[in-house]
Please model this.
Amino acid sequence: MKPWLVRGLGLSLVHVIVRALLGVALMQWPLQGSILRWMGLAVVILAAIVWAGIDGVRDRRANPDPDDGEDLTIRWLAAGAVTGIVAGFLTWLVDTLTDLPIGVKSLLFELTSGAAFTVLLVFLPAMAAVTAGRFLAGRGESKPDSSDRPSRQREREPEPAAVASAPSADSAWRSDEAPTEVFPAVDPQGPRPER
Model:
């Protein structure tokens, strides 16, 4: 199965469970609705953050060079889209077929506006977590030395023995006895025509 599909379906399951539990909790404690909604929102965001952070750490450890890393932006955008559409449909289905008071709107709303909100709810925290995961995984690594560079770069560098034995091209210019030449001053207005 594709990685974005696994993440999208997993987060859809989290989203549906949170909304179902939120509906039941609101029936038990109706005066705590605001706190319960914020807690449900935090759980969905936290699930995306943890999973995306793990992706960022794994990617940086597998690819120490940032240019060689996987494209996690598209992976998490697709996962957010799957989460939005599947979670919207499943919550509508659960609300329609069961007695759980999830409190969904129409199917059209759940598959459009509700899905768009869910995409942002997954994608934005996931991108922040991927960036943080890559940063934290890359902090402990030292900078690559010449032995870690690709062989094509090493071919361009001269051997240390050859550098030590060859005379330096500018060594003659470093002494106090170096020849000097005085250049004429440059006129800022340019050359003047002769009369």
